[in-house]
């Protein structure tokens, strides 16, 4: 199989080099390019990567602006934001703009490689620290969020099964294998789930799954 093509966008050369080494350490991944924010759109257009690892805070063009540009491409890559910050503001804005993942820069190398594979397969990936933030204290608060429960109440039983696994960060093929379904059927279920939940992407749906209590603590 062809390797997963990755582009790293960060204003710091040292960070780009370090991430490039991590990506290059895996036989099934290939770093095809790296740049700062201002060059990202043209580089991605030219190299057509499967996954982009994108820094949130850059001086020439911030990551959220770059993300919005990339999402307008005819065949946009899966984008995971990379940052040293895990504040609600950055996470919420990135998810609303269409990020498929949100990873902290201190993510372990093997976890980063795993995240790239999941993103390339159509899954979503949040680092554990970020997941705790987006769940919004559901565990500590003593139970599921009422608004999320209301939303998932519109789903069929099979859609709930799919949403729970989506909340664990599984890709379509993994969900299909777990539930003994075809990949196309899983895609149809996810499209229906997003529509019913009013979610613009699978990460937002995963957040709702967590807040509704569909994902057991420690599973995502």
Short description:
It holds the Pfam family Response_reg. This protein has 220 residues and is an alpha/beta fold. The protein has two domains: 4-134, Rossmann fold; 142-211, Arc Repressor Mutant, subunit A.
Terminal residue distance:
28 Å
Q: Mean pLDDT, nearest integer?
A: 86
Q: Strand fraction band?
A: 5-15%
**SSE run:** EHEHEHEHEHEHHHHHH
Strand count, sense and closure of the main sheet?
A: 6 strands, parallel
Tally of extended strands?
A: 6
Q: Would you identify the CATH H-level superfamily of the largest domain?
A: Response regulator
Per CATH, which architecture of the largest domain? 3-Layer(aba) Sandwich
Strand order of the largest sheet: 2-1-3-4-5-6
Alpha carbon gyration radius: 17 Å
The CATH class of the largest domain, by name, is Alpha Beta
Q: Portion of residues in helices? A: 40-55%
Q: Remind me, CATH topology of the largest domain? A: Rossmann fold
Q: What oligomerization state is this entry in?
A: single chain
Keywords: DNA-binding, Phosphoprotein, Transcription, Transcription regulation
GO biological process, one term: regulation of DNA-templated transcription
InterPro entries: CheY-like_superfamily, NreC/VraR/RcsB-like_REC, Sig_transdc_resp-reg_C-effctor, Sig_transdc_resp-reg_receiver, Tscrpt_reg_LuxR_C, WalR-like
GO molecular function, one term: DNA binding
